[in-house]
Amino acid sequence: MDSFNMQFLYCIIIIALGYLLKRRNIIKEKDGEGLARIIFNLTLPSLIIVTFNGLKIDNSLFMLIFVGFIYGILIGFIGLFFLKKKSRKNKGMVGMMIPGFNIGLFAYPLVEVIFGKEGITYFGMFDVGNAFIVFGLSYLIGSFYSKEEVKLDYKTVISKLSKSIPLMTYISVVILNLIGITLPTAIIDVASIISEANMPMSLLLLGIYLNFSFNKSYLKLMLQFLGIRYGIGLLVGSLCFLFLPYDDMFKYTLLIGFLLPTSVSVLPYSVEFQYDQKFVGTLSNITIVISFILLWGIANVMM
Predict the structure, then answer these.
(1) 78 confidence band (pLDDT: 50, 70, 90)
(2) CA–CA separation, 97 vs 89, rounded Å?
(3) Where in the cell is it found (predicted)?
(4) Which of 70, 64, 101, 90 lies closest to 224 in space, CA to CA?
(5) Would you say residue 152 has pLDDT above 80?
(6) How many CB atoms within 10 Å of residue 217?
(7) Are residues 250 and 64 in contact, defined by beta-carbon separation less than 8 angstroms?
């Protein structure tokens, strides 16, 4: 138990280091964009390749893709229902943040500490369904409410999905796994070396993006968002944990997955759709802190 808590402490120290480097102007927040691109397009895909290569995937794991996708749609529409009296801009800005989870940057480093490679496998399958929500539903909500008259362009959404390297990597390695094809040893060895950087780089990036300043007039809207996201997430996650007929790792994946922070993709969306970027960034950071505390608590109960 002490060793486990020390691992969490090390994660906090790395996040704090990233924040300190930003505060001292050694690294600027805009530098995080380049680091995020490296993580999303290189270290995270490498981790996916190493994790899924040659792995025997149980049929129950495919249910995680389905659950991740359906839950994203469910909570997305519930969120829009509770936000129906808000202005069009606020409905779009908050509505796009409700579905979708930050799995690649937030969950993977911590899940690896708690569950090891097995945890990465389960959360990887959950993230496949989540990716369609992040790059599909969230984008559609943000786009639709950004202006009074918006024509949804399905080609743009499909294009974004096809250009998502993590999503395409997930799909590719799962298909290769199912048909029994293993990648060459050289590719796996290189990917293994690169994947080792995913955890520290992801934690540093979380620290670089930490920011807690916001307009006080948004406080009620923030509390409503947090109530919807974590209230429903905790309720559905607990019910799944208690009643689903699957193994414990499957249940923990859903319980923890539904309590993860909002996706970092909402940050570039807020720029594209001209929403309040400081509000989106601050609320994203608050979800990181809340999710970190909840995940630490759940992990301690497990241990």
Answers:
(1) very high
(2) 13
(3) Membrane
(4) 90
(5) no
(6) 8
(7) yes
Q: How far apart are CA 255 and CA 235, in angstroms?
A: 9
The structural domains of the chain, with segments of one domain joined by +, span 2-302
Model-level pTM? 0.81
How many Å apart are CA 7 and CA 241, to the nearest integer?
A: 25
- pLDDT tier at 280, thresholds 50, 70, 90: confident
Helix axes 277-302, 108-115, angle to 10 degrees: 0
Query: What tokens does 66 get?
Result: 């389905």
Sign of CA dihedral 278, 284, 287, 291: negative
Cα–Cα distances (Å) from 37 to 1, 44, 64, 172, in that order, read 35, 10, 26, 20
Place of tokens 């993006």: 209
CB 284 within 8 A of CB 267: yes
Contact of 101 with 257, CB cutoff 8 Å: yes
Concatenated DSSP letters of 225-268 = HHHHHHHHHHHHHHHHHHH--S-HHHHHHHHHHTTSPPPTTHHH
Give 169-225 pLDDT, tens digit per residue: 888 888 888 788 888 999 999 999 998 888 888 888 878 877 777 677 788 899 999
Between CA 133 and CA 140, with CA 136 as vertex, the angle to 5 degrees is 115
Closest CA to 104 of 75, 127, 77, 138: 127
Query: What number does CATH give the domain 2-302?
Result: 1.20.1530
115 contact partners, CB below 8 Å, separation of at least 6: 122, 249, 252
d(CA 272, CA 79): 21
Q: CA 34 to CA 197: how far, in whole Å?
A: 15
